[in-house]
Design brief:
mainly alpha, 154 residues
Length: 154
């Protein structure tokens, strides 16, 4: 299967809370209208990724009550993977804490990428920028973002 045709397994809905609050909905009301449990809404609002089907149900519900239609290409953010995150970090001789600190992300973000759980594109780009600078300082070729960041799990 080619990577261009791969569909993401999980997606984020980063503006879930803002959209829910703008519509004056409580978590329970949104969950009931979308046919999901309250925990899913809370989890989405906390920045977790979930299956496309469940997140799309929440998105569709929010979209029905917005004054202007929402763009799923903008709102539904695919989970990203960095299959070589650990290898690149080790080549740079950085600890998880050091990489996280330099990238301005939580240690759990680095850990999630290294364990192939994935994360957001913004987090992947922040980590890759630090790793690229480190490798450049070591006179090693920089990592290629087109290769290092993918929606397909390793």
């Amino acid at each position: 299967m080619s990577k261009q045709r791969y569909r993401p397994l999980k997606v984020f809905l980063p503006r879930c809370r803002a959209l829910r609050e703008a519509a004056a909905l409580q978590i329970g009301a949104l969950a009931a209208a979308a046919g999901v449990d309250r925990g899913l809404i809370t989890s989405l609002e906390g920045g977790s990724a979930h299956t496309v089907a469940k997140v799309r149900a929440v998105f569709n519900t929010l979209n029905q009550i917005q004054p202007t239609p929402l763009d799923p290409e903008v709102e539904l953010v695919p989970l990203r993977f960095m299959p070589n995150c650990r290898t690149l970090r080790e080549r740079c001789k950085l600890t998880i804490a050091a990489l996280a600190g330099q990238a301005g992300v939580d240690r759990g973000v680095v850990d999630a990428f290294e364990k192939h759980h994935g994360g957001t594109l913004a987090d992947a780009q922040a980590l890759l920028a630090v790793l690229a600078n480190c490798l450049a300082a070591r006179h090693e070729p920089p990592p290629d973002p087109a290769v290092e960041i993918d929606i397909a799990p390793p």
